[in-house]
Design a protein that fits this description.
monooxygenase activity, Cyt_P450_E_grp-IV, oxidoreductase activity, acting on paired donors, with incorporation or reduction of molecular oxygen, heme binding, 22 helices, binds protoporphyrin IX containing FE
Length: 533
C-alpha cells in the first residue's frame, strides 16, 4: 500500500503554478476572449487529458498524481486572476459586491430565475456607478442611457451582441456595419414606408379584436393571443406573408428568447455552450429560430408580395451595384432581427393592459379623449396625450429591455460628468432601475401617465426615460410599434371594459415577470366586457 503513495516533487507543483500565473498576466489579461471561449476550454481539456494519459502510461495505479500539476496550474491561473481583479484592477476603487469583482459566475448564479432586473436593482444601493463584474460598471444615474448611447461618445456594443455571431446585421458590434445596416432599416421603416404598413397593422388588430370578442364576458389569459397578433404583424410587414401558423411562429421566437434570461451576465458561457453542446438545455430553440428564419427568407425570395415589406428593402440592398458581402450576409441576420426585435411589442402590450386593469381610471380618460377621433388616422392617435402617456408610463416602469443594451467604453475611457470610466470597460444602464430613480421621478413607483403631459413637474430628469434608446441606436421599429400599440388600445377601449376576474392575484403578471432581453410577463388573466352603446 505504501508504494502507491506518491510524494509530489517541487517542480511538479511550482512549474505549473508559475505557468498559470504567466498565462494570466501575459495572455488572458489582454483583449476579449468571448469568441474563443470554446477554443480555450477545449484546449485546456485536451492538455489535462494528455497529462492524465501520460500518467496512466507510466504508472496507472498513481493516476491521481496527474491531478497535482493540474491543480497547481489552476490555482496559479485562478489565484492570479482573483488577486488581480480584487487589488490591482483599474476598477478596484468603484463600489460593488466583492464577489462580482472576482467573477461573473456569481451573477450567473443569481439570475438562475431569469430576474436580472431585480438582481441589478438590488445592487443600486452601492451608488450611481457600481462595479457589477470584474470589468463592468453598471450606471444607476438618470443620464445612464445617455452615457451609453449619446451621439457624441464613441462607445461600441459590448460582447453580449456576439450572441448573434456569425450572422451580421444591424445588431453587429462593428460600428461601420451597424451604420450601413441602420440606413437600410431606416428606409424600411420611414414615414413613406409606414403608409404601406398601417392598413395591414390595422387588419391584424381587427382579427385580434374578433378573437377577444369570441371570449367576451369570460376570464381568459391574454398572453398568447397578443403574441400571435404581434407575430402576424411582423410576418406580414417583415416578409409579406399572412398564411403562417401564428402560434408556431410566436413559439419559435418566444422559446429562442428564453435562453437569454439566465445568460445575460455571461455571454461567453452562452457562446461556449452553443459551440460545445448545442443540443442541451434550451439551446436548440436558438438554433431552431435561425432555421425558421432561413425558411421564411428563402420562401420570400421566391415570391413577390403585392405591397412593400421590410424584406423588400433588405433584398434591394443586396441588388445594389456596389453591394458587398455584408449586404448579402445581412439579409439573414436582419431577418432574424425582425423577429427578435419585432417581438418586443407583444410583451409591452400585455404590460399596458396590466397597467390599465390595475389603474382602471385611465381607461375612462382614454375613452374620453377618443370621442370623435378617427382612430384609423395614425396622426390623430399620435396627438392624444393620455393614450401616449399610458404607453410611456408603462414603458418607464416596464421597459422593453429591462437591463438590455450594454456597451463598451472607447480605449480613451468615458467621462460621465466628472466620473471617469476607463477604456474597454463594459457598461450597463438598466432601464428597469433608472425608471424608478427618486432623483429622476417624483413618486417613482406610482403609475401616473399625466407626468408625460399635464404634470411635467413629476419628471425631475427627462434623461432617465429613453425607451426607444437614442442617438444612432434609436429603435428602427419605433413607428411600427407605436402604430400597433396606439391602435390596439383605441380599438379595445372603445368596445370593452377590461378588468381582472374576481379572486385572481392582480399582480401575478408582474410578480412572474422575467428579464430575457425583452420583459416576459407572467400570465395575465382578464375579462373583456362589451360596453353598452
Ligand atoms: C414597444 C416596442 C419596442 C421597443 C420599446 C423597442 C425598443 C428598442 C430599443 C431600446 C432598442 C435599442 C437596442 C440596443 O441598445 O441595442 C431597439 C433597437 C431596435 N429595434 Fe426596437 N423596440 C420595439 C419594437 C420594435 C419593432 C416592432 C421592430 C421591428 C419591426 C424593432 C426593430 C429594432 C431594430 C432594427 C433595432 C436596432 C436599431 C439600431 O441599432 O440601429 N423594434 N429597439
Amino acid at each position: 500500500m505504501g508504494d502507491l503513495i506518491a510524494t509530489p516533487e517541487l517542480p511538479q507543483v511550482v512549474a505549473p503554478l508559475i505557468l498559470g500565473v504567466t498565462l494570466h498576466l501575459g495572455l488572458f489579461i489582454r483583449g476579449e476572449w468571448n469568441l474563443y471561449a470554446a477554443t480555450v476550454a477545449s484546449g485546456h481539456a485536451l492538455v489535462f487529458a494528455l497529462v492524465l494519459a501520460r500518467q496512466l502510461l507510466i504508472a496507472p495505479a498513481l493516476w491521481y498524481v496527474s491531478a497535482i500539476p493540474i491543480a497547481a496550474y489552476l490555482f496559479g491561473l485562478l489565484g492570479s486572476i482573483s488577486v488581480y481583479r480584487l487589488f490591482f484592477h483599474r476598477l478596484r476603487s468603484f463600489p460593488g459586491p466583492r464577489l462580482s469583482a472576482v467573477t461573473k459566475l456569481w451573477h450567473l448564479w443569481k439570475v438562475r430565475n431569469a430576474k436580472n432586473h431585480l438582481v441589478l436593482d438590488s445592487w443600486r444601493h452601492y451608488g450611481p456607478f457600481v462595479r457589477t463584474g470584474p470589468n463592468e460598471i453598471t450606471i444607476y444615474h438618470p443620464a445612464g442611457v445617455e452615457y451609453l448611447n449619446a451621439p457624441q461618445n464613441s462607445n461600441t456594443r459590448s460582447d453580449w451582441y456576439d450572441l448573434l455571431y456569425p450572422t451580421v446585421g444591424v445588431f453587429s458590434r462593428d460600428p461601420a456595419i451597424h451604420v450601413a445596416r441602420a440606413k437600410v432599416w431606416n428606409k424600411a421603416t420611414s414615414p413613406a414606408a409606414m403608409k404601406e404598413y398601417v392598413h395591414r397593422i390595422s387588419d391584424h388588430i381587427m382579427k385580434f379584436e374578433t378573437a377577444i370578442n369570441e371570449r367576451a364576458g369570460k376570464p381568459f389569459v391574454v398572453n398568447d393571443l397578443i403574441y400571435d397578433m404581434s407575430f402576424d404583424i411582423i410576418a406580414d410587414i417583415g416578409f409579406g406573408t399572412t398564411d403562417m401558423n401564428s402560434r408556431e411562429g410566436a413559439n419559435a421566437v418566444g422559446n429562442a428568447l428564453t435562453i437569454i434570461g439566465q445568460t445575460i451576465p455571461v455571454p461567453w458561457m452562452t457562446r461556449l455552450a452553443l459551440s460545445l453542446c448545442p443540443g442541451v438545455w434550451r439551446l436548440p430553440y436558438w438554433m431552431n429560430l435561425f432555421g425558421y428564419t432561413i425558411g421564411i427568407v428563402e420562401k420570400r425570395m421566391k415570391s413577390k408580395p403585392d405591397g412593400l415589406d421590410v424584406a423588400s428593402f433588405l433584398i434591394e440592398d443586396t441588388q445594389r451595384e456596389d453591394a458587398d458581402k455584408i449586404s448579402h450576409e445581412a439579409l439573414l441576420g436582419d431577418s432574424g432581427v425582425m423577429f427578435i426585435a419585432g417581438s418586443t411589442t407583444g410583451p409591452i402590450f400585455i404590460l399596458i393592459l396590466y397597467c390599465l386593469a390595475r389603474f382602471p381610471e385611465n381607461m375612462d380618460k382614454i375613452r374620453e379623449e377618443l370621442r370623435g377621433v378617427d382612430y384609423n388616422d395614425p396622426n390623430a392617435l399620435a396627438a392624444l396625450p393620455h393614450i401616449n402617456g399610458v404607453i410611456t408610463e408603462t414603458m418607464r416602469l416596464f421597459p422593453a429591455g429591462p437591463t438590455f443594451g450594454s456597451r463598451q467604453t472607447p480605449p480613451e475611457g468615458l467621462d460621465c460628468d466628472g466620473v471617469y470610466i476607463p477604456g474597454n470597460v463594459k457598461i450597463f444602464a438598466p432601464r428597469w432601475s433608472i425608471g424608478r430613480l427618486e432623483e429622476a421621478f417624483e413618486d417613482p413607483h406610482n403609475f401616473i401617465p399625466e407626468r408625460w403631459y399635464s404634470k411635467p413637474e413629476l419628471v425631475k430628469d427627462k434623461r432617465a426615460h429613453a425607451p426607444w434608446s437614442l442617438g444612432r441606436y434609436t429603435c428602427s421599429g419605433k413607428r411600427i410599434a407605436q402604430a400597433q400599440l396606439r391602435l390596439t388600445i383605441a380599438v379595445l377601449l372603445t368596445k370593452y371594459k377590461i378588468s381582472f376576474p374576481p379572486g385572481v392575484d392582480e399582480m401575478h403578471a408582474e410578480k412572474l415577470l422575467e428579464d430575457q432581453l425583452t420583459p416576459l410577463p407572467g400570465d395575465l388573466e382578464l375579462v373583456f366586457e362589451e360596453l353598452k352603446a
